[in-house]
Amino acid sequence: MTSNLTMASSPEPHFEEEKNQSYVKAYRSEFDVPDDKLVEAIEYLGRLPGGIVANRDHRKLNQAVEHIDNLRSRPIAVPGTPGVLKEYSYDELYIILVERNHYPMKDFEKLMKKFEDRFGYLPSPPEFVEFYEEKKDELEKEVKETNEALLESQVMLQGNQIALEQIQQALEQERRERQALKQEMQQALEQERQRGQSLEQELQRMREREEDQLEEEVRYMIKRVVCKVCFEKEVEVLFLPCYHLVSCQGCKEQLAQKKCPLCRAAYQGTIRVYFA
Ligand SMILES: [Zn+2]
Ligand SMILES: [Zn+2]
């Protein structure tokens, strides 16, 4: 938004000195311009950033002459002293170029900056139009490059998206495989557990059967070794000749008749037996 007609700190250019400089000579060999116009243009260059020392360039001199012509023919009236040059302000240029002549806002902003960077002042409207024609391709190229970069990053994003989806799919696949493996292992464990349980039951049944048998045997043994008369003491007496091992010594002595208590046959003798 600044006008670049800043006062330079370097000394005012003297026309007599400047006209011997090569840039003035080069300009004069190309164009036929009256001295007063040239003086004005050189003074203008002297007021640009860096002063005359930084602006001794025959293209700049040419540009300054044309710029001053453009300012003189500006359609907007200049308040103030007649004959004094007034630059177009940024706001004026915005109204003329963007609002009235419909140059795109973005192009306007970019070109104003580019112009100021190159020349040290803001353009007049005709200079802007000329500059726009010159820079149109460059602007389009910039837009195109921006779009291409955008497209490229979009493609990259899509690539990333695809990679992400692939990773997610792989993860999902692995998750399903683990799940299946877990189920398989659980089933195997369950089968093993059931097998263990039936083994346990079988073992239990075997134990119970053994215990029953043992009990039976014990009962059988007890029945055999207990005296069949008193059912208290061990059998001790073997009757002859029937060979029945039936009673204890006490019960034998108390028998009323000399008969075997089991078969009731008269015994002829007895033998005392002892269990080892
Ligand atoms: Zn007895
Ligand atoms: Zn007997």
From TrEMBL:
Residues 227-264 form the RING-type domain. GO terms for molecular function: zinc ion binding. One of its GO terms (biological process) is regulation of cell cycle. Residues 129-216 form a coiled coil. InterPro entries: DEATH-like_dom_sf, IAP, Znf_RING. It comes from the Eukaryota. The keyword Metal-binding applies. SUPFAM superfamilies: RING/U-box. The keyword NADP does not apply. Keywords: Coiled coil, Metal-binding, Zinc, Zinc-finger. GO terms for cellular component: cytoplasm; nucleus. This is RING-type domain-containing protein.
